[in-house]
Amino acid sequence: MTDLNKSNQSDKSVDNRRSFLKKAGTASIIAALPVRNVWASYDACTISGAMSGNHSQQQTCTIQGRSPGYWHNYCDSRNRTYSVQGYGTSGSWGYSAENYPWKDVFGWGRSPFGGTSSRKGLHEFLPQEGSYNNYGGPDNINRHLVAAYYNAVNGFYPLQPGTYPEQYVQMLYDEAKRSGTYTVAQAIQDTYQ
Question: Exposure of 132 by Cβ count < 10 A (0-12 exposed, 13-18 middle, 19+ buried)?
Fold first, then answer.
């Protein structure tokens, strides 16, 4: 065998190893990705896809959530108390916007961003006229998470069958913790009407 043939054979072996390593590396990354069965969806129309622009099947997808300001005005117009006792704004006349404590929706391990107590009612995280509290958290993420919860509860975000609004916003919370509050706050904000 000539030196040229040995060199070509060696190059092919290196290329084969590189190709194998690329494929093996890609497969392990894909396998490590978390399953997103909690992301909202309806007939391949997903909240996550709409938020990221990465639909695997491009479809027209209309998601028209309401803003934190809308939910504040809605709750305020119903003259409901901002008590943590769970008094809400549900009824046959409108949407459900119960004032559950943050911890009851997001769980004990997911305190509001910015160090606010998880015992506060959800309404307290909505923007309040003349109030300068910092309950909104960095990038107003807490406000956007509460709005996302109310949007999911009231059908403005289509969720997969068997997925609860609490699961959906807990996943959003975890994503904000992982990728940053600004990114998730902006993505949620982009779903508002």
Answer: exposed
